[in-house]
Amino acid sequence: MKRLYIKLFVLFITFMGVYACREQPxxxxxxxxxxxxxxxxxxxxxxxxxxxxxxxxxxxxVLDEPLTYxxxxxEKTDGEFNSSLGNLMADIVLEKADTLFRRREGKGVDIAVLxxxxxxxxxxxxxxxxRNAYEVMPFENTIEIVGMKGSSIREMVNFLxxxxxxxxxxxxxxxxxxxxxxxxxxxxxxxxxxxxxxYVASNNYLxxxxxxxxxxxxxxxxxxxxxxxxxxxxxxxxxxxxLKAAPDDxxxxxxE
Length: 256
What we know:
Layout: H1 2-23, H2 46-63, E1 66-70, H3 84-105, E2 111-113, E3 126-129, H4 130-136, E4 142-149, H5 150-163, E5 169-170, E6 172-176, E7 182-187, E8 190-191, E9 197-203, H6 204-207, E10 220-228, H7 229-239, E11 251-253
Parallel strand pairs: 2-9, 6-11
Antiparallel strand pairs: 1-3, 2-5, 4-9, 4-10, 6-7, 7-8
């Protein structure tokens, strides 16, 4: 009986302690901070270097292996309405998205649209490597495909016209008149059809409305490929011995 009383007493004390803690939640009473300066006075830890050097060496070998060749510099600023690097990026996304979508869903992709700001570096003349893909596209963006009605396509085209930036596009030709009005619009070489459903490839950030591209809000059944744009670039580099891209007539303005 004595042991029973002791057990009950211990349970009572435990319960009261827990109850008291619940009644009086912990509160922050003090904070302390220290500043550690990282500069040239710090020395490397040789043991860490010994551990990571083999991995670093192999990583650099993979990243710097030539995959293709650029006969001239490719950049996003060499055209008013479209650019060499923007065209290359959009063409890669359109080609890879179309191949994948046909294989998985039996449907083709009509258009690819990316954003000017997403291109973060140039591709220099000479050998092109996987490291270049990381420099141009450092983000983890993946390709997504969405169905868009004619009205949404028209909204997209109006956005591209009024942005006055060479956002990368492929599969579509926009021709402006001398007053910056829409003169003609073709998709895959065929005049735009307001009543058609078009499949548009872009990246997950833009399809979610990023960079002001709200025209994707009415997109139907987004298809998430889980295929990173950077990986699509690397695959494309491996498949083509020379990168041929230049500003062209996919987005132009008539002089008269």
